[in-house]
Amino acid sequence: MNERILVVDDNSDLRELAETILKTQGYDVTLAENGKEALGIFDQRELDLIVSDISMPEMDGFALLKAVRSRDAGAAVPFLFLSAYSQKSNLAQARRLAVDDYLFKPFDARELLEAVRVRLDRRRAVKIFDTREAHLQSVLLMANVIEARDSYTGQHIEQVRKTALLLGKALRWDKPSLVILEFGAILHDIGKLVVPKRILNKEGEFTSEEWDIMRKHPEEGVRMLEGIHHLKPAIPFVLYHHERWDGKGYPEGLTGENIPIEGRMLAVVDAYDALTSDRPYHQGISKEDALEKIEAGSRIHFDPYLVKKFIELEDQLP
């Protein structure tokens, strides 16, 4: 759904100009002539941002902002003032009422769009973090189901989660992306729920038939998650973490940067934990030896840039 913006101004030319600019970026724009009309609209529909003039009849921008902030639904809605330069002295009052930003008239399209984009980006982050704990609990419940079938996988999930967050922060991913990364790291092996226990816990080499079953787990994981709206952004971690830089991975055999960054990133983290952990068919190796193997796999198994960034984390890795 397109983000919903309310534009409030008693000047019809400015209202329509703002509407035209915002609609070029696909925003759903509603117009109001004054604060009273705007407040009625606010009480009737969910909004993602309000852009308002200050001086208006019936209810000015300050009164509108105060009324919006007094409502439970209005505490986190970004509010942007459009102000004549002569009103600059009034902006201290706007700040006391918790305005998010302001633009001086006349404004140009670039200024308006940038101010709106920044505020909406922050609102998205707030929404994600408001629901993160509830979603994280449901994700951890799923992880517990996986762990109940395979104790190795449960330990692996937690180590991959911690290590993936280290790499994500080193890559300067923003906070919403780190939330999605955390979910993706926890759920990346969820498709193994459909793999028979006799294969999961087998000691020794898999047969070709067993490999065929095992290689289906990324796609099975996607089928499990695609109907859960808040987990859909984690799907690239689940689907692509077994792709290889040289195109010899699965399930799609993608190459290089054709592999989504989520898959390239988790491939490095997943391999590191696999190398350093004890498994039914091999003993874990040291951190130093594992990093040497990962470096040797640069441009074969792994994205060379991500390998470089990962090795830089050596002192922080478990």
Descriptive report:
The chain is an alpha/beta fold and 318 residues long. The chain folds into 2 domains: 4-107, Response regulator (Rossmann fold, 3-Layer(aba) Sandwich); 132-316, Hypothetical protein af1432 (Orthogonal Bundle), CATH 1.10.3210. Helix content is 54%, strand content 8%. It is built from 14 helices and 5 strands. Strand 1 (4-8), helix 1 and strand 2 (28-32) form a beta-alpha-beta unit. The longest helix is centred in the middle third of the chain and has 41 residues, at 109-149.
Largest β-sheet summary = 5 strands, parallel
Order of helices and strands: EHEHEHEHEHHHHHHHHHH
CATH class of the largest domain: Mainly Alpha
Mean pLDDT: 86
Please list the strands of the largest sheet in the order they lie side by side.
Answer: 2-1-3-4-5
CATH architecture of the largest domain: Orthogonal Bundle
- SS summary, helix count: 14
CATH superfamily of the largest domain: Hypothetical protein af1432
Distance between the termini: 42 Å
Strand content bin: 5-15%
Low-confidence stretches: none
- What name is given to the CATH topology of the largest domain? Hypothetical protein af1432
How many domain units?
Answer: 2
